[in-house]
Design a protein that fits this description.
The protein is an alpha/beta fold. It is built from eight helices and eight strands. The chain has an eight-stranded mixed sheet with strand order 3-2-1-4-5-8-6-7. The radius of gyration is 16 Å and the shape is globular.
Length: 234
C-alpha cells in the first residue's frame, strides 16, 4: 500500500478556506487576478478548444472552469473534498460541465494513463511532500505529444521577501502560513524533475506583481513566481 503524497495540514488549510474560493476579494484574490494571464499563456501555446485537459490540484476550480469555457473537456482533481464541492457547485451555477474527482495525481495516473492532451498543475508542487512524484504522475497522464504546465515559487531571498513576508504579512494578499519557504522549488530543480519524468522542457515564464499598481504581469523574471511548459515526446 503506497502512502498518499499529501500533507494533511495543507489539505485542511485549504479546506477551511474553501467557501471563500470564488470570492474575488477573499484570500484567493491573487488566483483570480493571475488566472487570465495563465489561461492565455496556456491557450496560446496549445489551443484548448476540443482538448482533453486535467487540472491537478484544481482547488475550487478557477483555472479548470476557465479552460472549460475555452472549449476544453476538463477533469479537475484534488484531495480537498470541501474545495471540490465548492468547485462542483460553482460549475453548476456557471453552466460549465466539468468532471471533478477526489483522487491523487499518482492514483489518477494509474487509472487513466496517457489520456489527456493537456495537464496543468498550478501552485501545487510547493504544497506536497514529494513534488517529483506529482511531476511523474503528470507525465504519465499526458498523451505522447501532449503538453504539461507547472507553476510554482522559486527558492531564494527575493522570493522569501516577496512571496512570504510581502504577500502574507505586509500586503496581506494571502493568509499567513500559506507558504512554507523550505518547500519552494528552484527552476533548476524543477527542470531536473521534469527531465527525470521523461518530459521535454520547452519554455519558462515569470509572473510578477507590482505592489504600486497592484497589477500582475507575465515576463521573463522567474525570481519569484514562474511557470513552465513541457511536452511528452511523441
Amino acid at each position: 500500500m503506497s502512502t498518499l503524497n499529501a500533507d494533511p495540514a495543507e489539505i485542511q488549510k485549504f479546506s477551511e478556506l474553501a467557501h471563500r474560493w470564488w470570492d474575488p476579494s477573499s484570500e484567493f484574490r491573487p488566483l483570480h487576478e493571475i488566472n487570465p494571464l495563465r489561461l492565455e499563456w496556456i491557450n496560446q501555446r496549445i489551443p484548448l478548444h476540443g482538448k482533453r485537459v486535467i487540472d491537478v490540484g484544481c482547488g475550487g476550480g478557477i483555472l479548470a472552469e476557465s479552460m472549460a469555457k475555452k472549449g476544453a473537456t476538463v477533469t479537475g482533481i484534488d484531495l480537498s473534498e470541501k474545495a471540490l464541492k465548492v468547485a462542483d457547485l460553482h460549475s453548476l451555477e456557471s453552466g460549465v460541465n466539468i468532471r471533478y474527482q477526489k483522487i491523487s495525481a499518482e492514483e489518477m495516473a494509474q487509472a487513466e494513463p496517457a489520456q489527456f492532451d493537456v495537464v496543468t498543475c498550478m501552485e501545487m508542487l510547493e504544497h506536497v511532500p514529494d513534488p517529483a512524484s506529482v511531476i511523474r504522475a503528470c507525465a504519465q497522464m499526458v498523451k505522447p505529444g501532449g503538453s504539461v504546465f507547472f507553476s510554482t515559487l522559486n527558492r531564494n531571498l527575493k522570493s522569501y521577501l516577496f512571496a512570504v513576508i510581502g504577500a502574507e504579512y505586509l500586503l496581506q494578499l494571502l493568509p499567513k502560513g500559506t507558504h512554507d519557504y523550505a518547500k519552494f522549488i528552484t527552476p533548476a530543480e524543477l527542470s531536473q524533475d521534469v527531465r527525470n519524468a521523461g518530459l521535454e522542457l520547452q519554455t519558462m515564464k515569470g509572473l510578477s506583481y507590482n505592489p504600486l499598481t497592484k497589477i500582475y504581469s507575465l515576463n521573463n523574471d522567474t525570481s519569484v513566481n514562474y511557470m513552465i511548459a513541457c511536452q511528452r515526446p511523441g
